[in-house]
Here is the input.
Amino acid sequence: MNIEKSILAAITTDHSRDRVGGGMPIFYCETQEELEMVAANLEAIIDGIAHALSKDLYVIVKH
Amino acid sequence: MNEYTYPILFGIIVGTSMRLLMLRTDYRQYPTYLHGKVIHISLGFIAASLGTFAVPSIMEKEFTAVTFLTLAASQFREVRNMERNTMNELDEFELVPRGKTYIEGIAVAFEGRNYLVIITSLLTTLVYLSVNIWAAAGTAVVLYLISKKLMTGSTLKDIVNIKYVKPHFDGAGLYVDNIYIMNIGLPDRQEEVLKYGMGFVLEPKNFNIRSTIANLGQRQAILHDVSVTLGVFRDSGTPALVPLIKRDLDDGRIGVFILPQYQDIDRAIKAIGAVPVLENAIRMPSESRPEMEGKNQ
Here is the structure.
């Protein structure tokens, strides 16, 4: 299966939970370091790119 | 042995050597060594024979023999298909693919070269039979020079000014000069990109060239050729490290972002300059006459 041009996961440190939502997996992290580590791992696993929407919100997109 | 033996031999040899001279394996690595070449030399031999045999046939009043040439046309259209299929298959496993426009251009060139061989063989044999061998040799040389001229298209350095610009980040956005390339989130990746990445701005020399270098096939050809020449810092499953070209919509400049293994600015500029201008990408908006539409132009 080939999923392209779609957001596959969101990683955030924002716990208010009303800013990130939807049908994709959302990973909540405690610290910026954890956020970057999770994003880097997911990037490698999914073969996508970790894009930063803001400092505390990353999305993994497959191109 | 009869009166046609030597002219036919001469025509075939000239035609086949013409094909050999036009068959070069260079940094583009196509055709590959030996096996790829054997195919093209054999086809060149067939083309030369077809062109050569047409002349004595006509002289013997065997006019139907000319229908063989139509056979040749369909045969060499097949060459184009063969090249296209092979390269499309190979392209799937390239780290930086050639792109369909480039492939189509190469395939067309292969077909065209066979026709040049036919014409060369036909004319040299004709001259041999109607004048003598020295005139035929002269014709062969002239035809070689003409085909060489016809077969050399322009390269990018003729149509754009190439300037090195160090890529930089603005937040998560990667920029070459003021041209946005892509968004890279992870700081580690950003460091990698800054360490290995090189940026070039290609400024079109006139208005027509804007559309030519905007062509996606042309851009992919630039990326492929540069990656082949300088190596590429990427692996499968690392889409963040993909070389990219984006366009400045305001003035038609394009920003080339590459990750070469071999960090040499001069060499990279030479490599970009040597990329062929794909004939399928050439656009001439200033030559069009929309007001003349429907009338005789």
